[in-house]
Prior knowledge:
By secondary structure, the protein is α/β, with parallel strands linked by helices.
Amino acid sequence: xxxxxxxxxxxxxxxxxxxxQALGQVDFDLRAGEFVSIVGPSGCGKSTLLRxxxxxxxxxxxxxxxxxxxxxxxxxxxxxxxxxxxxxxxxQLLMELEGHKPEDYRARAAEALKLVGLAGFEKSYPxxxxxxxxxxxxxxxxxxxxxxxxxxxxxxxxxxxxTRDVLQEELSAxxxxxxxxxxxxxxxxxxxxxLSDRVVVMSPRPGRIxxxxxxxxxxxxxxxxxxxxEFAQLTGxxxxxxxxxxxx
Length: 248
Ligand SMILES: Nc1ncnc2c1ncn2[C@@H]1O[C@H](COP(=O)(O)OP(=O)(O)OP(=O)(O)O)[C@@H](O)[C@H]1O
Ligand SMILES: [Mg+2]
């Protein structure tokens, strides 16, 4: 059982070697076990910020304080599966790379596949799956790590709207069950509100946090929540914040 990691970003900015300032100054405290979505215009530094939170790249200034021994899993926009491996072998991949024992990674991958609804497809290959199923496999591979911190970079961008709704509901249930801290980058304001405790709205590049909007709806969230006036009110607020010009 993961415990959810708390992360503190203090004065974090990022300037790439090319001289491009991707991120302005970002200060943010991610609480243990919460789910936060990041929305913002294309190129504003969302993926860069996620990579800093993951510890994959260093910030130029400030610091990202993360507990030393947390398990972090990253789900990329493209499912990035190995086509020559079966579903179960793909689901085992990250644990295998981390040096876990076969008896452990086999059991955990099987469990994760069941969680995302892919039981019965263990012996299939990625090309035999639908886009939504490939995405679930990518998610299962990350969940098999039992992450304390799960970082999702637009994982649902490529699936149709109906599948997307279903996957959002499944992701929300998984998050509740598994207890990880979640950070999701998305362009979809409805998705951000539906899944999150808080929504972070970023400015155009160099990205800074313009607003942090609390989402007060209790979990678990019913699919019908999306049709309520309160939900529409909140998505409207996030959209308005996105449209507001960044103040220099
Ligand atoms: N490794 C890199 N070297 C130089 N510049 C980079 C690098 N990675 C990203 N950038 C630049 O940093 C800026 C922010 O990129 P980033 O990928 O974080 O944006 P984003 O908000 O995720 O955009 P999108 O919504 O389109 O995915 C972009 O202008 C991009 O060109
Ligand atoms: Mg991105």
